[in-house]
Fold this protein.
Amino acid sequence: VQLVESGGGLVQAGGSLRLSCAASRSTFSGAAMGWYRQAPGNQRELVAAISSIGVINYAESVKGRFTISRDNTKSTVWLQMNSLKPEDTAIYYCKADSSLRRLLSSETSGFWGQGTQVTVSS
């Protein structure tokens, strides 16, 4: 499975960005998908995840500001990011895994995209 992220960039605080992750395989519909991020000097952390049937998890820090969604017909998952803050600055990675549990619990399972940089200026 190949995952290709896009949509990152530079935005001012309070602004919005929409990240996209396109998957290469038709098995996308059965996969759990997630967005992680890693800021310099920090560990990679979960941002949001969505199961194959639409169960969603968000990190507390993004609840009410970010929205994850997916379209199985397009093998794509999105992350709509509103009210961005400088602390949201990080490289954002897309991940696919066979289940939501595995996606959330294992760094080594599943597939990762190459990452896209999001920079929020104050």
User: Anything to note?
Assistant: Helices lie at 100-105. Residues 47 and 62 are 7 Å apart (CA to CA). The radius of gyration is 13 Å.
